[in-house]
Amino acid sequence: TAITTSKYLFETVENPLLQNVSPTMIDISILTASYTTSLVPANNAVHFWYRYCILCKSNKWPKARYFKTYGVCVVYMTLVCAMFFVCRDRQSEESVRNILENTKLDHVQRHISMRLDKPIVMICTVHYGIMVLLEYGIMCFFGFKIIQKIRDHHSHVRSATQQAQKNVVTVMILQAAYPIVVSVIPGFGVACLIVAGYHLEQVAYIASAFLQLMPILSTLTVLLFLPSYRRVFVQTTKLFVDSNVTITTTMDERKQTRSFHGV
Q1: Among candidates 252, 263, 186, which has minimal Cα distance to 2?
Q2: Domain count of the fold of the chain
Q3: To the nearest whole percent, how much of the chain has pLDDT over 90?
């Protein structure tokens, strides 16, 4: 979770199982979490490009091209995250005191810190923001082209395949939008307010926690918007509910029978 003050950016570890590990493990845990999160928009952008080539250009990429394209993004983001990591400072008495003074937290979790006034941190922060805007710009462009193509084709041909493609594109758009809703917009808004002089460090702590909703939202989107998954999900849920109702009814009947014989 991120905590931002006027001078520092803190990345904390909330997992109770990691509170007593070595500083190196804290570094690895935070770097891994931040790194994997940064790869999500890049993955979505490449996948939108891939879908655009299939649906609009009738050009299906070989697996090698898909992995090479995404591999370039991975290498690039690896370099950016590595520069961030080089600038980090480990937990100290000063960093703990800084967090306690700027937030209402009673206890400080294990963390690393970065000074926001370091040139390399400023460059990496601006660069990361540009990369996110570029990735979502790619998604919006290709997404618009895909939707336009589906609408034009859907007006002439109505088929199960066309509807399936429409459902897949809907899921893609929603899954691509979730990082913006739960991470980019709240984080950007809080950062702007803090730079403007508002003391919202506690709000920043809460806003960054919304990132944990992304896997749940992505999973529910697949289960509810793709018909085949939705049918299985509904059937499984119905069986689970029916079995619990049956068990509850059986237990109630046994209790009534025992009380009747007891009387």
Answers
A1: 186
A2: 2
A3: 2
